[in-house]
Design a protein that fits this description.
alpha+beta; six-stranded mixed beta sheet; globular; ABC transporter substrate-binding protein; 18 strands
Length: about 525
């Protein structure tokens, strides 16, 4: 009852403080702005954070050397026009396009690329995890005004796949704003220094509350692909699901987040002014278990929880069959995933047996277990509530703790602060098994939200490290399949489904083009009908 009262209070607060409801948005000179109702990141600094909200900034305010486009996602040259790789996989040379401008009108050069990677590695925040094991700052060099060389310390097969993670920033804009050797992080958290299709209005920015973007007419890709590009974007997150959907139906926002609850799909589709974009994704829904905290340091305890989740009830009834059962950490449609993987079944009798074994071994199954949910995403709450009821049937007391993405991920740096359990999705940041099983279950990534199960298995570490070092695709596939099978046998987490991306859109939004990388948030591809 206390949790329901808290959610009701949060809903009332969301309605009372919703920026778009408080006052009408000013109209742009030629068209009404696009109002984007998705979640904003905690910071605008593209080198400081690594999550789905940050991809919106990365795709629109910044550019990378390569970018993913389309579905299935294809890696295409972006700021770079080409690259070459040495036979041993250690030396990578990239050639930049000519005539690229930053938002301040200055030219982008190879030195900006070098600076961007050195800044990323020096800050050593979330996006750096894909590069820091194999790349040292001094081994990123400009070999000419438009050429950049990367020399890796060891072969790293996912290197090119991960390149789109790195935004190229304007070092001349950042340099005057460096304070206490922070690489300008304080300034860039609330400003933009990119070359992307849209530029930030820092005067109106409030972290996680509002972000205004203006079209950059000089973007190197040009605007000939659309006759009505979007000139002004107002990103206004709406935290409570029902409020967000209502705002879309009323025309107060033009897009929801991409986690639209399935029980709202028909409602949005029935409205004459709105629609639901349904796109096959590579996003895995997962319930994490902190393997360093008893009882989850016991395999039988973890298997007890794995067999107590009603997968079919959640996927087919609550989510109305709009998802596909996922038996492990990788998307079903990703290479390197074992095709014969057998997922855990909902079986309360088997769950009780594993619980009994865990108790006999001294695991504190009887203590209250906390599961943290993202209160702005209804589906995480639904999963926890269903799980709570079924666990009660096997004698486990599960307490649901409302939280936010930023609050949960901010706690995952240490095992003692990481929740007992928490619910989230692992999205497509780059298309390689390294993005899923590689960074989730190799112990070298402990301290990141992706590795927040705190799972450790020396055999799995060896398999994953050999896989990322091999330049032989067939060998990598074999190694990833072996690692995935072992991870699933150890049951460090609960994997539920591979999802359809569901985003509510106003029908005046045209040209929406989904890619699993970025969840369809690339604004330059869209246009508006007023």
């Amino acid at each position: 009852m206390g949790f329901r009262r808290l959610r009701a209070a949060m809903l009332a607060a969301a309605v009372a403080t919703l920026p778009i409801a408080a006052a009408p948005l000013p109209a742009a000179a030629q068209q009404r702005p696009l109002v984007w109702g998705d979640t904003l990141p905690a910071t605008l600094d593209p080198h400081a954070i690594f999550d789905v909200p940050s991809q919106f900034v990365l795709l629109n305010v910044y550019d990378g050397l390569y970018r993913y486009q389309g579905n299935p996602p294809q890696l295409v040259p972006w700021l770079a026009e080409s690259h070459t790789t040495s036979a041993d996989g250690l030396t990578w040379d990239f050639t930049l396009r000519e005539g690229i401008k930053f938002h301040d009108g200055s030219d982008m050069t190879a030195e900006d690329v070098v600076y961007s990677f050195r800044r990323l590695l020096a800050m050593n925040r979330a996006p750096a995890a894909a590069f820091s094991p194999v790349l040292r700052a001094e081994n990123v060099t400009a070999t000419g005004p438009r050429t950049v060389r990367f020399v890796l310390s060891s072969p790293y097969a996912p290197f090119l796949s991960a390149i789109p993670l790195v935004a190229i920033v304007n070092q001349r804009a950042i340099a005057p704003n460096v304070a206490n050797n922070d690489w300008g992080a304080g300034w860039l958290a609330v400003n933009g220094a990119g070359s992307g299709a849209y530029r930030v209005d820092p005067a109106t920015y409030q972290a996680r509350v509002s972000l205004d973007l203006a079209r950059f007419p000089q973007h190197f890709m040009g605007w000939s692909h659309t006759q009505r590009p979007i000139d002004t974007v107002r990103a206004r997150p709406v935290m409570e699901t029902s409020t967000r959907v209502l705002a879309l139906l009323r025309g107060e926002i033009d897009a929801t987040d991409s986690y639209l609850p399935t029980d709202q799909v028909e409602r949005v589709d029935r409205n004459a002014r709105t629609r639901v974009a349904r796109d096959e994704s590579m996003r895995v829904f997962i319930i994490r278990m902190n393997n360093r905290k008893p009882p989850f340091d016991n395999r039988d305890a973890r298997l007890c929880f794995a067999h107590a989740f009603n997968y079919q009830g959640f996927n087919d009834v609550i989510l109305r069959g709009l998802v596909v059962r996922n038996g492990g950490p990788n998307p079903n449609n990703l290479w390197g995933n074992p095709p014969d993987l057998v997922p855990y079944a909902f079986d309360l009798n088997l769950a009780r047996q594993h619980c009994d074994r865990a108790r006999a071994a001294g695991a504190p199954i009887g203590r209250e277990i906390e599961i943290h949910v993202q209160n702005e995403l209804e589906q995480t709450v639904q999963a926890a509530q269903m799980f709570q009821a079924d666990l009660r049937r096997v004698g486990i007391n599960l307490r649901i703790v409302p939280n936010t993405w930023a609050g949960i991920t901010g706690a995952t740096g240490q095992p003692q602060t990481t929740p007992d359990m928490w619910v989230h999705w692992v999205s497509t940041y780059f298309v390689d098994p390294e993005n899923w099983v590689g960074q989730m279950y190799d112990s070298q990534f402990h301290g990141t939200w992706k590795a927040s199960a705190w799972y450790s298995n020396a055999e799995v570490d060896t398999l994953l490290r050999r896989a990322r070092a091999s330049l032989d695709r067939a060998e990598r596939e074999r190694l990833y399949q072996a690692a995935t099978r072992q991870v699933v046998a150890d049951s460090p987490d609960i994997w539920v489904y591979n999802t359809l991306n569901l985003r509510g859109l106003a029908r005046r939004v045209q040209g929406y083009s989904f890619s699993p990388v970025g969840s369809g948030g690339e604004l330059r591809l869209m246009s508006l009908e007023n």
